[in-house]
Amino acid sequence: MAVNLRSPDPRSLFPIDGVELGWAEAGIRKPDRKDLLVVRIDEGAAVAGVFTQNRFAAAPVLLCREHLAANKRARALLVNTGNANAGTGEPGLAAARASCDELAGMIGCDARQVLPFSTGVIMESLPVDRLIAGLPQALNRLAADHWSQAAETIMTTDTVPKAVSRQVRIGEKSVTLTGIAKGAGMIRPNMATMLGFIATDADIPLSMAQRLTQHAADQSFNRITIDGDTSTNDSFVVIATGRGPLRIESESNDLYVAFRDALTDVARGLAHAIVRDGEGATKFIEVRVEQAASENEASRVAYAVAHSPLVKTAFFASDPNLGRILAAVGYAGIDDLDPARVQMHLDDVYVVRDGGRHPAYREEDGQRVMKNSEIVVRLQLGRGEAATAVWTTDLSHDYVSINADYRS
Amino acid sequence: MAVNLRSPDPRSLFPIDGVELGWAEAGIRKPDRKDLLVVRIDEGAAVAGVFTQNRFAAAPVLLCREHLAANKRARALLVNTGNANAGTGEPGLAAARASCDELAGMIGCDARQVLPFSTGVIMESLPVDRLIAGLPQALNRLAADHWSQAAETIMTTDTVPKAVSRQVRIGEKSVTLTGIAKGAGMIRPNMATMLGFIATDADIPLSMAQRLTQHAADQSFNRITIDGDTSTNDSFVVIATGRGPLRIESESNDLYVAFRDALTDVARGLAHAIVRDGEGATKFIEVRVEQAASENEASRVAYAVAHSPLVKTAFFASDPNLGRILAAVGYAGIDDLDPARVQMHLDDVYVVRDGGRHPAYREEDGQRVMKNSEIVVRLQLGRGEAATAVWTTDLSHDYVSINADYRS
After folding, report:
1. What pLDDT, on the 0 to 100 scale, is given for residue B187?
2. Per the structure, how many domains does chain A have?
3. Which of B247, B276, B305 finishes a domain?
4. Which of B192, B182, B198, B207 is nearest to B241 (CA)?
5. Closest Cα of chain A to B88: distance in Å?
6. Does the residue A267 lie in any domain?
7. Does residue A232 surpass a pLDDT of 80?
8. What percent of chain A has pLDDT over 90?
């Protein structure tokens, strides 16, 4: 079902010096599937993360925040699928702590150097014994070229593993970035997506890593939505091992922007992959809002359109019932919006001029665009210079089927 | 498909002295269906309305506001289905004006005493010639006992006509109230629902009618949601003909609250009927939020739950995947929410205690409630005294089918 998205060729995923990945079939929820991932990080890496703003943040998210705040350099990521360990109260926190303790003992580091991540069903107890029992198998499999298997391990309702890898030259130095992510549903990231991990061999300070992580998330995962549901477990982590030749010490360095762009490009590739593989997705839609008075305003309009079930079902049906988009613009909460200044294009088709149907607009033209699998909705508000884009999917029968059956 | 909702027995709908209703098959969008309604109101009635807050408000909504502001006593409502006359710019406004002019000429009143309403597809030109050609037929059929046919005439994707009628005694005087409404999709009213009309024979001042209309809307139509899409055409009108024995001159009168409650009861009956007949609905769900710090906060949490596609698909599947409700509470935008103070009941089942799964909660108990067609979700936030309730439906395959096929 995924929209123009294929499994990455494992040979296209560059290893990152200083990072090894191993998986296990721990039987967290179901037997005989990869559901446990360990990412071992060499000493001295700069590791930073951004996490969900959901107030019911999962136990592993709470622990990640606590461990990163302790200012120890992270040495491992520990990821399980099949159980979100969210809405689980104190016992959930204790389970997450126990899993960090065990892994720390096995690899020889402080428990606060382990960052835990969980994804799956909310409000069920984490089977921590099975998780811990799976750790030796995962450690036995640690290798630098296991990115493809790692991407498979973190899938839930994803239909395609998601990985992006780049090798670029920045100021005569080569830098490598490789990332994986999982998505599919409960996707309206707020600070980060469900799970996304990018590693690079660049050598950067920890404080810069944190700002770069935030920037990349804002330009990628924080601009996608599938169903408007912000997860309890969203986490995005960047690991900079410092083992490669590129070293950036300050943000005033000429190389900084080039590296930031490369990182953002990988993050955006992963974010787009999540949308393309959104639950039930048959279309990949970019909602671009221009001429807004502020970026916040542009964002509100873009999300109103991207979340409207009526707009999304019209895309699913390839029905150019485009008045539904205007209705969503109208309820986006801009009190002083002047409809007479609003323009709308669907790809190259000028649909709405000055708030009403363009006299030259013909339904056949709208129909032609709606049949595409990739569509850009461009809205101009006539209020200012700010702009944004968000990426989303249509709403199909399969979305309902997947979410009505998820636990069965 | 409607949830525990049947067509009203025409004999249960009391006529209102001073109001007559007539319909026509004007062929606005399709031939041979009732699609034009005229409600003729005797002189001297107090008529008040509340309208959508959508900035792309339809031409008829703009005209209703203009006509009511002119402070002329309304003498007729003119309603068409099949075309929303929204996103139609100046030509749409001219078409709505022409229809009011014609009807005013036929019944002998000022054009500003006619209130127009449209519902149907957005961004298509209103076929005003066909509408005007249908007026004589509608006027020929004017009669006080045509409420049932009027309810049928204003249906679009509704599967059941919606009407509520009450005769109550207030301070020894009898008062009659009869109302009709249409809903089905693009339902997250903001000030009023798609179309709702209530008439009463009470004798009340115009200013009181306006405040009562707002109050009734706030307690009914403004608390329902099907898909979160606020329509361009929401309109709710109350007609008080003053022909009955009940007369209320001031809001300090003892009878005022009793009458307000009777009016609100009728409005809530219509609003619930709209939810029960929501597009694809198989469940009627009340989301009740208690112990909030403010009513606004309670409302935000209630709507976050009521709009979550994941929560709605779980209800459709009768799957007690109730962690999805906690996730929605968590992203409702209350920054200082303490999860450890949150309690959740599903009907009589205590599911979440102090932010985590209740130790005594058994999935069978949740399952039992989820199978019901009417369910109350009760959330206590542990922050204050404010409370609210909103009413919504599940999200089913039929919602997608209906909205993917609506125009075909």
Report:
1. 65
2. 2
3. B276
4. B198
5. 5
6. yes
7. no
8. 61
Which ipTM score applies to this complex?
Answer: 0.77
Output the domain CATH number for residue A102.
3.60.70.12
To the nearest whole Å, the CA of A231 is away from the closest chain B CA by: 6
CB interface of A with B, residues 186-245, below 8 Å = 186, 188, 190, 227-232
The pairing of strands A343-346 and A374-380 is antiparallel
Q: Assess whether B93 and B186 both reside in one domain.
A: yes
Residue of chain B whose Cα is closest to the Cα of A93? B356
Same domain membership, residue B198 and residue B128: yes
Look at A327 and B227 and tell me if their CB atoms are within 8 Å. Answer: no
Quote the CA–CA distance of B328 and B308 in Å, as a whole number. Answer: 7
Q: What is the largest CA-CA distance in chain A?
A: 71
B266 touches chain A (CB under 8 A): no
Contact between B174 and B204 (Cβ < 8 Å): no
pLDDT band at A272 (very low <50, low <70, confident <90, very high): confident
Q: Which of A234, A251, A276 is the last residue of a domain?
A: A276
Residues in chain A with CB shorter than 8 Å from the CB of B396 are 400
Whether residue A375 has pLDDT greater than 80? yes
The answer to whether A407 contacts chain B (CB < 8 Å) is yes
pLDDT at position B216 is: 87
Write out residues 65-94 of B within 8 Å (CB-CB) of A: 84, 86-92
CB-CB under 8 Å, A56 with B326: yes
A331 contacts on B by Cβ (under 8 Å)? 53-55, 188, 190, 229-230
Kindly give the parts of chain B with pLDDT less than 50: 191-192, 408
Give one DSSP letter per residue of A76-138, joined into a string.
Answer: EEEEEEEE---S-HHHHHHHHHHHHHHHHHHHTS-GGGEEEEEEEESSS---HHHHHHHHHHH
Q: Mapping DSSP to helix (H, G, I), strand (E, B) and coil, where does residue B237 land?
A: strand
Which structural domain range is residue A65 located in?
A: 10-276
Q: Tell me the pTM.
A: 0.82
pLDDT for A186 equals 64
Q: Do B89 and A355 touch (CB under 8 A)?
A: yes
Q: Which of B193, B213, B388, B393 is catalytic?
A: B193
* Shared domain check, B100 and B62: yes
Nearest to A339 among B55, B227, B326 (CB): B55
Structure-token pair, residue B37: 């309604």
